[in-house]
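hey m, so remember when u said the tokens were messed up on ur end? i reran from scratch. heres the input so u can diff it against urs
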Amino acid sequence: MSVNYDLYETPDLAKSGEEQPLHARVVLKGSYTAEEFVEQVTVFQHMPHAQVVGVIEAISKELRHLLLKGFSVELGDIGYFSLSLSVDKKVMDPKDLRSPSVSLKDINFRVNRQFKKDIESEIELQRYHSPFRVKNPLDRERCLQRLEKFLEDRPCINRQDYAMLVGKTKIQALQDINAFIKDGVLKKYGSGRSVVYIK
């Protein structure tokens, strides 16, 4: 089974106005929940379901315990976990730093080289046309026309629907939506994953 990919426009972060080279990204076929992953391991590795669940829970608890004690942890042939920190203010002299200014930034994962090599040697890549790939994005007026037509029959729209409606990436869609909110065309309703936009 192959891994699908497509080519996407690279944002001009420096705002140079120059055309940016395309970059490749995996087009996901979906994702596995923890429960589905356990089921996959149970079926294909011929292990009892309860045992797989127990092992994953035990690994999670021990990993958390060891990270909290300040260790980096190697997880089998997969890779290493470690913590990274951030400082809330600019500090030039260590004497100026107080402990409350230091906090957890992230939990880092560094993949094992052999694990990466194994994936690299077996991967089969196949070009696939993603519905989110953008070649010639629509101008603002045409996007607004499509949006208004969409909202004639429906009470609201979400970011994903808008992106597909106008053929833009999710980031570009959010930029458009924020501009429409600023102009009073749309209003944001809800929070988190349940955010929708209404007239």
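this time it looks ok to me. The longest helix spans residues 49-68. if urs says something different then somethings off w ur setup not the seq
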